[in-house]
Amino acid sequence: MHIEFWGAAQEVTGSCHLVKVGRFTLLLDCGLMQGGGKVKEDEANRQDFPFDPASIDAVVLSHSHLDHCGRIPLLIKQGFKGKIYTQRACQEMCRVMFMDAAHIAERDAYTLNRKRERKGLPAIDALFNSQDAEKALKHFRGMDYAQALKIAEGVTVTLFDAGHILGSSIIQLTLEEKGETRKVVFSGDLGHAGAPILRNPACVKEADVVLMESTYGGRCHRSWEASFIEMREVLNQARHSNGNILIPSFAVGRTQELLYLFTKYYKEWGMGDWQIFLDSPMAIEATEVYSHHSHLYDAESREIWAKQKIQEKLPNLKMTRSPEESIAINNIKSGAIIIAGSGMCEGGRIRHHLKNQVWRKGAHLVFVGFQARNTLGRRIVEGAKTIKLWGEEINVEAQVHTINGFSAHADQQGLIDWYRCFNASPKLFLVHGESEAQEALIEAIKPWTNAQAPTSGQYLNLLDPAYALQDLAE
Known about the structure:
By secondary structure, the protein is an alpha/beta fold. The protein has helices spanning 38-46, 66-69, 72-77, 88-118, 130-137, 224-241, 254-264, 281-292, 299-305, 310-313, 323-328, 350-357, 376-381, 412-419, 435-444; strands at residues 2-7, 16-21, 24-28, 58-60, 83-87, 140-143, 149-152, 155-161, 169-177, 180-186, 209-213, 245-248, 275-278, 317-319, 336-340, 364-367, 386-389, 392-395, 399-402, 427-431, 458-461, 469-471. Strands 6-5-4-3-2-1-21-22 form an eight-stranded mixed beta sheet. The protein is globular, with a radius of gyration of 22 Å.
């Protein structure tokens, strides 16, 4: 009975942890590596898995962000035949995510192969295609929160609301082997308490071992109230500078929060003064999935948002699905709020809007989410004076704003508070975080436990009372 740490170990993306119980093997998440540019990402994600996919009996998925689920189609291409267990809303959202990712992969492969053909090089396949995505979706089995499900002899899964995005889960595994029982809790990505729309992360009481994300382990967010004031101030500044506002936003989670807040504060923030564009086909589809699961909202959000369609509450919102509609936005020089993916500016339509807007002094660029190391978004946040898009060097003259309080991740205090819900201080291992954030959290949480941050390739023997990390090579 053991856990092997393979992805999101002292880094933020590529979540993947292998759990072995007797002859049964499962994965907690199977995510894409992101950051570092398309070429490096593609190379990393094309590498063989560090285990035989055919030997995996099941996947238990925490949520539908691609850094947690995006390698599932590859896992199946390479031999996985088991079931994928996740919350029902997550199951529906994965269709949106997989089909969009497949479309992008196919387009990127087509573009790259044209270049390779001119150089006399052989063509390469897309990372995965639409058929691979459809095949993967047939393996999913939806679950409800707080309903224990025995998926194999000695393995029971229970999901709890993580409050991160719709259908996100904290995963509790009850494992039995050789007369011994262990409870392992994997936090997935924990939500920021008080966030719009969703409920706060559930408190889980029982665990022997906890795997906890640490994305913001070294930082405390501003309060929601301060963040709302900051957003209103940005809107006022942009109104007076006669520019547009660009918001790179994650299609699932952050986009829906923004639309909800624009609805809630429509009069107070003067939202009627703006043309609002949701310029992301995937975000549009994800917003529709949100509308199917209003029973997962918190009480206030059900009252404000669930009873009417979003366009009835936000009449100046235009959802632009086609490329032609997106291109037409470039003709608007001021008075537009453009929400587009991707959230870290690594792809999607936001890059076209940056090319057309970021050199304008009256423009405003608002980051409302985490920017991973080596991403374009991170470089801009850190003060880059120029950026390169499609080979062209472009000056960054827009005013850049970072509103960290909008994060969908728990901050350092939120992570500590969630851990303190457990009885008897279970052994804590930090995943899904950069090493600096993990070091800060290890220090901050010392009054309650001595946390550790595994590296890729380490494992944990769950039958060892010391729960000591070891290298697989040992």
